[in-house]
Amino acid sequence: MAGKTDQVKGKAKEAVGDLTGDQDLKSEGKADRQAGEVKEKVGKAEEKVDEAIDKVKGVVHPKK
How many CB atoms lie within 10 A of CB 53? Predict the structure, then answer.
């Protein structure tokens, strides 16, 4: 969820920076947006790893 929040915040900063001609704010927004995208991808990767671990645990220690 934090990733999506950063993306929205970044997009808002980019828009305001664009409207006001503030390149620093626009750049900061772009960085926030990209950081949010990375956080989201890392979160999805963590979920996939957790799922894989759970599958392996089920194979190694089957429930009776």
Answer: 10
Q: How far is CA 41 from the centre of its chain?
A: 5
What is the chain's percent helix, strand, coil content, to nearest 5? 90, 0, 10
- CA–CA dist 8, 12 (Å, integer): 6
**Are 2 and 39 in contact, with CB atoms under 8 Å apart?**
yes
Orientation angle between helical segments 23-60 and 2-20, nearest 10 degrees: 170
The model's pTM is: 0.74
Q: Average pLDDT for residues 41-61, to the nearest whole number? A: 88
Count other Cβ atoms within 10 Å, centred on residue 4: 13
